[in-house]
Design a protein that fits this description.
The chain is α/β, with parallel strands linked by helices. It has two domains: 199 residues, 3-Layer(aba) Sandwich (Rossmann fold); 97 residues, 3-Layer(aba) Sandwich (Rossmann fold). It has nine helices and ten strands. The relative contact order is 0.15.
Length: 309
């Protein structure tokens, strides 16, 4: 049974699962005066029930595990910077499976409260140890108690990127009527850029996949810097899909979040960094159809300095 059939099957029992995906694609004209021959389109992933694009891969990963009987008597375990944690929490609650998440203690208060609202358990690691410490800690817990936990491992689970290959890429292709020329995203787990990139290139190998890479400090929640040799590179990241890498200044990315807000698109830090990358790509190509993602909802960052205007 394919994943679409699985989703249809379980959505009959758990209707909320059927709300994941099929998000709108909206034209964004914030750079239209400067680049009149470049169309910018944004996939508004905040329409997912969990408020972010992470609902897609988490649904795929958990339904695969459920169908294989891997969740029986287990607690779902993984690490997250926040958005995947929310997806695990609400989907796990719907499925009736307990969830434990390892999250850096500097994850925004709003995301942690949303996770707790679905009765998931939080284990915090120190922010000064970086997000990679959350990855190391979740692996330690999984290895220490294999009888207790189903370690979903979003950094190494192929159903992460397959979700984007089968859903996100297809939706973008259809919503642009096959006109998309460039896709801009970054690397958190590597699932979005790998899966969407693979899917789009299967439709048209000439589509360019542009990857934004933020500075190491102060960093961006949900995005990996990938510049330090000691940084953990996600196992599912397929760098061969990426055509170019773009450095993104974090403060400029935050400013772009505010540009999006003024256009009526209220997203978080990673969305601003993506728009910053879109600007650089548009400046370089001067003509084309660029698609990027509004990864989540801006309200998720009210306790951070992002909206200290």
């Amino acid at each position: 049974m394919g994943m679409r059939e699985l989703i249809a099957k379980y959505s009959k029992q758990f209707p909320a699962l059927g709300l994941v995906g099929n998000t709108p694609l909206v034209r964004c004209n914030v750079f239209a005066d400067e680049f009149p021959d470049v169309e910018v389109w944004i996939k508004v992933e905040s329409f997912n029930p969990g408020g972010s694009l992470k609902d897609r891969p988490v649904l795929y990963m958990l339904l695969d595990a459920l169908e294989k009987g891997q969740l029986d008597g287990k607690t779902i375990l993984d690490s997250s910077s926040g958005n995947a944690g929310i997806a695990y929490a609400w989907i796990g609650k719907v499925l009736g499976v307990p969830v434990r998440l390892v999250v850096p203690d500097n994850a925004s208060a709003e995301r942690k409260k949303r996770i707790l609202s679905h009765d998931a358990e939080l284990f915090h690691t120190a922010a000064h140890d970086g997000y990679d410490e959350a990855l190391r800690e979740v692996r330690r817990q999984a290895e220490a108690h294999p009888d207790l936990y189903y370690f979903c491992d979003q950094y190494g689970n192929d159903y992460n990127w397959r979700a984007h290959e089968e859903s996100t890429a297809l939706e973008i292709w259809e919503q642009t009527q096959g006109r998309v020329t460039h896709f801009v995203a970054g690397v958190g787990t590597g699932g979005t850029i790998t899966g969407t990139g693979k899917g789009l290139k299967a439709f048209n190998p000439n589509i360019q996949v542009e990857c934004v890479v933020p500075e190491a400090f102060p960093g961006v929640e949900g995005l990996k810097p990938l510049k330090d040799p000691d940084d953990i590179v996600p196992a599912i990241l397929d760098k061969s899909v990426i055509d170019r890498m773009w450095d993104v200044d974090v403060d400029r990315g935050w400013e772009m979040s505010q540009v999006l807000a003024k256009a009526g698109l209220f997203g978080g830090q990673s969305s601003g960094c993506y728009l910053s990358g879109v600007y650089d790509v548009a400046k370089d190509i001067q003509k084309g159809v660029i698609v990027t993602m509004l990864c989540d909802v801006g309200e998720r960052y009210m306790s951070t300095r992002l909206w200290d205007l």
